[in-house]
Amino acid sequence: MKKILSILLLGFTVFAFAQNGSGEMKKRNQFTPEQRAILKTKQMVLKLNLNKLQESQLLDLNEKGANNRQKLMESHRSMKQGDQQLSSDEKFNMKNNMLDAQIKYQTEIKKILNDKQFEEWRMDSKRKYSMKKRKMHEDQKQKQKMKNK
């Protein structure tokens, strides 16, 4: 009887922790946009060996970007909660605006960094992008396997 009770208790405990939702989203949302900008800037200072002027310019740029991303996340969240679907034109415009923002960010970064720092930043960005893409692909495969079961 004790064994059955302990197994049930363990099962309920595991079940309760499994219901907490994705911890990754909670971790990502625990910082304000300003805090995220500061952390991103400090990481870039460490990687690229930036001076104080470059650091302050990057901090301003990263704060603007973080605030814009926060606004976008809130609008996406409200659309998700309202179960709204985007039309193909809206999706195109959203993707186009995102790419325009990335191009603008890259040109601003290029103005702030010297050539060697810019190339190092660019290589690091490409590496992060490919890792993110690979992770998303693996996650999609995992979701597909779960659907098929």
Q: What does the secondary structure layout of this molecule look like, with pairings?
A:
Elements: H1 2-18, H2 23-28, H3 33-48, H4 52-81, H5 88-112, H6 115-148
Describe what you observe in this structure.
- By secondary structure, this protein is mainly α.
- The protein starts with a helix and ends with a helix.
In short:
Helices cover 86% and strands 0% of the residues.
Rg over alpha carbons: 21 Å
> Could you tell me how far the N terminus lies from the C terminus, measured between alpha carbons in angstroms?
33 Å
- Average per-residue pLDDT, rounded, comes to 84
> Structural class of the helices, strands and pairings?
mainly alpha
Question: Any key phrases for this structure?
Answer:
149 residues; mainly alpha
